[in-house]
What does this fold into?
Amino acid sequence: MNRRENEQQVALNGAELTGGVPGWVELVPAGKVTGRDGRGWENGNPQAVIERFLNSGVDLPIDVEHATELKAPKGEPAPAAGWVKGLEARDGAIWGRVEWNQTGQDLVGGKAYRYLSPVILYDRKSGEIAGLTSVGLTNRPNLHLSALNQQGESSPQGQDPEENSMDMKVLLAAVGLPETATEAEALNAIGKLKSDLASAANSSAASADLAKFVPRGDYDAALARATNAEAVLAEQKRIALETAINSEIELALKAGKIIPATVDYHKAQCQQEGGLDRFKEYVAAVPAMGGPSGLDGKEPEGAGMAMNAEEAQIAAMFGNSVEDLRKYS
It folds into this structure.
């Protein structure tokens, strides 16, 4: 058995990073991968994950509590504790060759951190693991094997792991659970909230005071009737105002207080708020533009039959005067 096989055997025999600083670590178990929170993925093609790593040409960072995924995008420090320099498939599992720096040696060798948590990329529909983006040192593992995935830190292919983590934290806070709660606990809390809400709604409906609440259909019908009544009342008020205005205008014309040329002006002013009252005050205050002439039915002086020169000559021939002709005409 060569050295690499010994390292593999040591790593597989422990569920934590013990015995110094290992050079090879198991990152993803073989086959069906199930976490403590109930989620599952499928490591059915480890060679595709390895080829993706090789094609990227970039080593995988090993950090503390996924600082690469959570802190680096915010511009915060995310120092590495080591680097995964190579990947290898062993009996369906994915192993990584690690080059630790001094920080990693101190943290792992001093047992400050005992578990590994890879950040995986996987197909949302099939759950097939497609790649790795980083590995974190953690003390809260999710997987039951030596290659440990921190609870709530996996991400679907093409999705930012930080986004999933932050969404989960917001969800847990909304249902009153701590950040350490599992997805199953969150689902149970959501189910209880929905049940409580339904019970509250049914209780409210059963105990509603009918003196304070009416069916929506009755309310809408009453509102429609009120709206129609207001429209009818407004039309009646408009007609009554218009009749009153016309009456006052006619009286003012007969009294000589206004002239026909200003009728339209006075009607428009009377339509304003309080306009009719102001018009009445105006009519009462102004004098008439001219009293009655008393000439109705009278003829002007000298009116009647007028005679020309010939008629006057004929009248004289017969001995008649102008007054005689008017008398008998």
Remarks:
- The first strand starts at residue 24 and ends at 28.
- The beta strands are 24-28, 31-34, 40-43, 60-64, 82-90, 93-100, 115-122, 129-138, 155-156.
- The chain has two domains: 3-184, 216-285.
